[in-house]
């Protein structure tokens, strides 16, 4: 079984948290929703990014993960169902990428002495091997690469004297251009309303032992090592979580963001992003 702890916090009290995390005996996940960019919300929730994250979260909670059902096949069915619902709400003949919500996804499933993993978008999974005291960081890179292009553009505008909000407005055409590259070979792959994206997930299996550890994170939490360099990925982050607790580590992240409230020291697309992390330890004998 998996012994799991986790935490999620919105980046702002002004908007809903579009992250979700959860677990069952043999399954754990982080979902990071992203709203559509056309400025129109059509889901009953009133926030399409939160809607797709919650729907995915509820699906995984209710999914019979102990069955022989393939994780990828089950997510394909979910994607098709979400697309059907969304088409009904929009009443549109065609849903363009700017009209679509999406969700980055990190899922692990324990099967016998293996962990099956699946990643889409910019979530990450870190596998910590307690026997070799090594770690492997798994994360797709395409979306992060595109975000870095926008961040460098934003930083350039701010060096010219624009405020963060003005610079963010100035990079909107770039963000929209990148969103049009969603679920295309020259762009990035993410979970959403196009089930074909599931076939492009980072997916595989890892042999595990008693005490193997997995850290699943949304990109709002992984800033702690890939943006602010507060901690290093792998054992350094895990030991800090073990010593201080998840809430304390997350508050340290938020304190760093508050100190750089205008995104001058660390240019980024959001001052504070929704942040979620799950720590899952394998307990084979339980």
Automatic annotation (TrEMBL):
InterPro entries in UniProt: PPM-type-like_dom_sf, PPM-type_phosphatase-like_dom
Top-rank taxon: Bacteria
Domain annotation PPM-type phosphatase: ranges: 16-233
Record-linked Pfam families: PP2C_2 (PF13672)
Protein name: PPM-type phosphatase domain-containing protein
